[in-house]
Amino acid sequence: AGYMLLVAPPDPANGTVFYFPGCGSERLHADVGLATVFLLLRVGVRVVLPPKHLCCGFPAQANAKASVYSRQMLDNTIVFNQIRAMLGDLAFDGCIVSCGTCRDALGQTHVGDIFDAPLADAVDFVLARQTALRLQGAYLYHQPCHDSLDGRGLSLLSRIAAGGVTLTPCCCSEAGTLALSRPDIAAAMWARKRASLLPLTLDATRPMLITNCPACLNGLGRQQLAPVHHTAVALADAWDASGWRRWAAARLAGAELIPI
Fold it and tell me: How many other C-beta atoms lie within 10 A of the C-beta of residue 166?
């Protein structure tokens, strides 16, 4: 039970997407979800959001909570089918995620088949439709272990970053819930990541560190070596640094609430 949101762009929509924020982009780092909605609306697509606080189920699966995972998968599949049935007059252009683990879990629910639309990373989807968007300055890029861009993040960002993008190796150490369940292992991974970052962050300009994973924001943030942003937030800042949050919040406030 709950409400889905139908968020319309300011001009007539040129398409429709289903966006699944997940825990990381909705609750841990709400800016990521808000930035994603902003970018999608700005490229002219209508955004359909599921009821709040839906978890993709991946954390339960990774922690061997089989019954919890099965229940979450079933509940999500029911919700997705309800949304699709209620919006049967709309053709969907994408099932959008801003998190690699959400993409993996949603793939197991066959969300792409439900909406008859490809499962896609938000930034990849937006940049395919807004080719003029550019990032100013130099960036460091952390490729997540669960990568919603399938290893294409560096090449994708290099095309739009004026000052270049440098890949930083090693896991961020967050590893989803590993930092909570095995802090001893996570601490060793944190030290290895720090060793790889230190030589790259000695530049006086302190290049921004960007990644396409909400959980990685936690692991990278604990390093305190460079400002860290999700790629969606970096692009939203490039589009309208001072106003995108207010603009997106206003569009969400005017969204249509549909009970399911």
Answer: 15
Comparing CA positions, the residue from 14, 73, 22 lying closest to residue 47 is 14
pLDDT-derived band at 204, boundaries 50, 70, 90:
low
Rounded to whole angstroms, the Cα distance separating 34 from 251 reads 10
pLDDT in tens, 67-126: 999 999 999 999 999 999 999 999 999 999 999 999 999 999 999 999 999 999 999 999
The runs of H, that is alpha helices, within the chain are 22-23, 30-42, 58-62, 66-86, 100-108, 111-115, 122-129, 153-158, 178-181, 183-197, 214-221, 231-240, 244-253
Second CATH level (architecture) for the domain 3-128+240-259: 3-Layer(aba) Sandwich (3.40)
Residue 118: φ, ψ to 5° = -70, 145
**Tokens read off for 233:** 């937030």
Look at the domain 133-237 and name its fold: Rossmann fold (3.40.50)
Burial class (CB in 10 A: 0-12, 13-18, 19+), 222: middle
Alpha carbon distance 140, 226 (integer Å)? 9
Our separate counts of H helices and E strands in the chain read: 13, 10
Whole-angstrom Cα Rg for the chain: 18
